[in-house]
Amino acid sequence: MQKVMQCGNLKIPALGLGTYKLTGRVGEQAIAEAIGLGYRHIDTAAFYDNEAEVGTAIKNAGIAKAEVFLTTKVWPSSFTKKLFVPGVQESLRKLKVNAVDLLLLHWPADEETNKLALGLLLECYEKQYAKHVGVSNFNLAQCGAALQFAPISCNQVEYNPHKCLADLAGYLQQQNMVLTAYSPLARGAVLNEPLIQQLAAQYNRTGSQIVLRWLLQQKNVAAIPKASTGKHCMENMQVFDFELADEDMRQIFSLCKP
Ligand SMILES: NC(=O)c1ccc[n+]([C@@H]2O[C@H](COP(=O)([O-])OP(=O)(O)OC[C@H]3O[C@@H](n4cnc5c(N)ncnc54)[C@H](OP(=O)(O)O)[C@@H]3O)[C@@H](O)[C@H]2O)c1
Questions:
Q1: In-domain check, residue 118
Q2: Is residue 254 one of the residues assigned to a domain?
Q3: Full-prediction pTM beyond 0.70?
Q4: In this structure, what is the dihedral angle of CA atoms 82, 84, 86, 91, given to the nearest 10 degrees?
Q5: Band (186; pLDDT cuts 50, 70, 90)
Q6: CB 20 near ligand 1, within 6 Å
Q7: 39 noted as active-site residue
């Protein structure tokens, strides 16, 4: 079962597959397996050099392209008039789609360059290359500034029990924007926390399920764990049939490092 979130006019499956480092034939197979298991939200980026693999996996999955929520991102070296739009066209060609669901600026640059990039992002939106636009790795101030120039509906940031970003999360909620949590498992580091292991035993779940549940139980938060095995993909999906008690949610927040 999957949860689909609605924030403003953005409708997004709460759990997606992160694909950084899923490249080549092996990467394509891992992505195809995840789609086969029911993943309908895939996160890629021009920088990951795997948009072609993502496109092929979706094409071969035997499902309508429209069923998969697809995010890609533009790397800052393309934040120029000459490179931005052709770069996005190239991403679409590799992904084998006419439009992505969500197009993000991958990292902020300086203020002037951000402004230029947001204008170009808007141009892609108006050309219907993207159904929604957003940013990634923008702090609160950068996010506020970005909202003056483009109708961004998402900020993708590192967010996990070690990195809670309370102010930014609160701000995004207030703006009714999605916070997409990248590195939701802190690349595995949070799974070693005694509290996570204790809660896993208590709820009869795995550590990754506890952490993902903690994320997805928060308002407007989506998560995109990367998993390269069917076992991990399957495990990470099974987080919609239980709930963490408020006290346990609070305890996990206390793991946050300053
Ligand atoms: N916007 C950005 O700047 C940015 C930056 C970083 C990442 N991202 C996105 O976020 C995605 C996820 O982040 P991430 O790859 O950095 O870290 P992550 O998802 O927190 O961790 C991935 C690691 O956790 C392991 N794992 C996954 N499921 C598991 C499970 N059920 N049990 C035990 N281990 C498990 C994976 O192993 P296996 O591979 O062996 O399954 C992999 O080693 C990326 O792939 C990318 O799409 C975006």
A1: yes
A2: no
A3: yes
A4: 160
A5: very high
A6: yes
A7: no
